[in-house]
Design a protein that fits this description.
heterodimer; B: mainly alpha; 69% helix; globular
């Protein structure tokens, strides 16, 4: 059972309430596809991912980035049961999407960097620690139903 | 995943922007590492003060970034260029190489904070590859 202090809860809700999901989601996904190009394997049907510019302007990637970030919302609203909240999504990523769970950490790292760029020095070491703890729980929950 | 000519150019060009803030960036990255990955504190039990921005953290952050600057200068042959540093880390410091990745991540986070417009995805991938290559060179002498 993951324990959250009051300060950690308030840091997470504060970070997410100040986010533009339509901006940060796509930016994080785009960054992941460029920095870790093998992750493009899951998006073969999305159209042109031939180079960085194509990835940045691809509308399917934009839409998907937003969708992924809204998916994180569920964890923000259910911090005391992220494991249960993501059980179905975990099965989906395993059985239907066949995503190697190591990729979740790659996207999480890119999201951390995008948020750091947005928040600047407001993203203190304490906020970084809390945010990375949150993402680690999400990543673990998403990998939970793999077998 | 070795460094292409383009990677090296990208790293050198980005480093020119980093250089004036290098000490500050080093101090911030090290501070973050100690807070976000508390297990890394085990290597610094001999310091009086491990808090962000403390004197030993500032000094060591500068030392580390000095090493990275050296690596940028020797980017065409990191293995032989960083030989002495590799021996230091292998025989004296004995830092578990998994920690190189951890510190690299925190350096990237600080790049994003301090140079948000320059740290584009294209620069990010080149710098990430570079820091991984540095880590490999530092691990050369381990076994």
């Amino acid at each position: 059972m993951v324990e959250w202090t009051e300060q950690e809860r308030s840091i997470i809700t504060s970070i997410f309430s100040n986010l533009d999901y339509d901006d940060v989601g796509p930016k994080a996904l785009v960054r992941c596809l460029i920095v870790y190009p093998w992750t493009q394997r899951y998006f073969a049907s999305f159209g042109n991912l031939y180079n960085a510019d194509a990835i940045k302007t691809n509308p399917n990637i934009q839409a998907h980035g937003t969708r992924v970030l809204h998916g994180l919302d569920r964890a923000v609203k259910n911090m005391d049961n992220i494991k249960g909240t993501y059980a179905e999504l975990s099965v989906l990523h395993s059985e239907k999407l066949h995503v190697d769970p190591d990729n979740f950490k790659l996207l999480a790292d890119c999201l951390t960097i995008v948020i750091a760029a947005k928040m600047g020095s407001g993203f203190t070491p304490e906020m970084q620690a809390t945010f990375q703890k949150f993402l680690a729980v999400v990543v673990s929950a998403l990998g939970r139903q793999y077998h | 995943m070795s460094l292409t000519a383009k990677d090296k150019e990208t790293v050198k060009a980005f480093w020119a922007k980093v250089a004036p803030k290098a000490e500050d960036i080093g101090q911030d990255a090290l501070s973050r590492m100690l807070v976000v990955y508390p297990q890394t504190k085990t290597y610094f039990a001999h310091w009086k003060d491990l808090s962000p921005g403390s004197a030993p953290v500032k000094k060591h952050g500068a030392t580390v970034m000095g090493g990275v600057a050296d690596a940028v200068a020797k980017i065409d042959d990191l293995t032989s260029g960083l030989l002495n540093l590799s021996e230091l880390h292998a025989f004296t410091l004995r830092v578990d190489p998994a920690n190189f990745k951890i510190l690299a991540h925190n350096i990237l986070v600080v790049f994003a904070i301090r140079l948000p417009n320059d740290f584009t995805p294209e620069v990010h991938v080149a710098v990430d590859k570079f820091l991984a290559a540095v880590a490999r060179a530092l691990s050369e002498k381990y076994r």
